[in-house]
């Protein structure tokens, strides 16, 4: 990834750099579920689409993170048939858009220190789960299906625990490494 980021750095123009990085994160969001899907019983619980979207918000800023988060689940559903378009990919689009927005926006307003990576990530993860719950409530409500508090807690936290742990371990390491290497300009 460092090689790709250094190559992107050579491009002229911030907009071009963001476009290339957005394409990279979108591609990772489409492909990473293939890797984790090979781990029986835990693969989907690792939340593989979440990682590149969260990192995209940190690296590219909130507008790009929001758009990449919004389109990744739906595009993956349309291309590969997974996750199912309705209701899963639709609801995930809102959730991932919230992740991309929140990491980018909080990265902009909080100090750009190593210590600030953690609150940015945790607050973004919480906001994304709240948005996932609200979108699930609305989408499933319109479909005539219920969405309970128990379903919210199970989907947002209990079943997602392996992915939450992975995000809390991997993302700060990646963001701090990118910052130390000065691979990405401030967004």
Explain briefly what this protein structure is.
The chain has helices at residues 2-10, 14-36, 50-60, 62-80, 85-109, 114-142, 149-158, 161-181. By secondary structure, it is mainly α.
What does this protein structure show overall?
The protein has helices spanning 2-10, 14-36, 50-60, 62-80, 85-109, 114-142, 149-158, 161-181. With 187 residues, the chain is mostly helical. It has a single domain (2-181), classed as Arp2/3 complex 21 kDa subunit ARPC3.
Counted beta strands: 0
Low-confidence stretches: none
The major β-sheet equals: none
Proportion of strand residues: under 5%
- The shape, in one word, is globular
Average predicted local confidence, pLDDT:
90
Q: Can you name the CATH architecture?
A: Orthogonal Bundle
Given helix and strand content, the structural type is mainly alpha
- Rg to the nearest angstrom? 16 Å
**What is the total number of structural domains?**
1
CATH topology: Arp2/3 complex 21 kDa subunit ARPC3
SSE inventory with pairings:
Elements: H1 2-10, H2 14-36, H3 50-60, H4 62-80, H5 85-109, H6 114-142, H7 149-158, H8 161-181
Helix pairs in contact: 2-3, 2-4, 3-4, 3-5, 3-8, 4-5, 5-6, 6-8
From the structure above, extract its key features.
single chain, 187 residues, mainly alpha, Arp2/3 complex 21 kDa subunit ARPC3
């Amino acid at each position: 990834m460092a090689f790709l980021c250094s190559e992107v750095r050579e491009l002229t123009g911030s907009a071009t750099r963001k476009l290339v990085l957005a394409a990279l994160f979108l591609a990772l969001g489409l492909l990473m579920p293939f890797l984790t899907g090979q781990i029986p019983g835990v693969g989907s619980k690792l939340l593989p689409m979440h990682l590149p979207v969260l990192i995209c918000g940190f690296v590219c800023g909130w507008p790009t993170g929001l758009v990449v988060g919004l389109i990744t689940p739906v595009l993956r559903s349309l291309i590969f048939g997974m996750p199912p378009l309705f209701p899963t990919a639709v609801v995930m689009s809102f959730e991932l858009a919230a992740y991309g927005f929140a990491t980018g926006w909080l990265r902009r307003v909080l100090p750009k220190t190593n210590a600030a990576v953690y609150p940015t990530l945790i607050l973004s993860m919480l906001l994304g789960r709240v948005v996932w719950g609200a979108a699930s409530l609305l989408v499933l409500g319109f479909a005539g299906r219920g969405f309970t508090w128990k379903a919210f807690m199970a989907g947002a936290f209990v079943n997602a625990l392996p992915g939450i742990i992975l995000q809390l371990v991997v993302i700060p390491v990646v963001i701090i490494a990118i910052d130390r290497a000065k691979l990405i300009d401030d967004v």
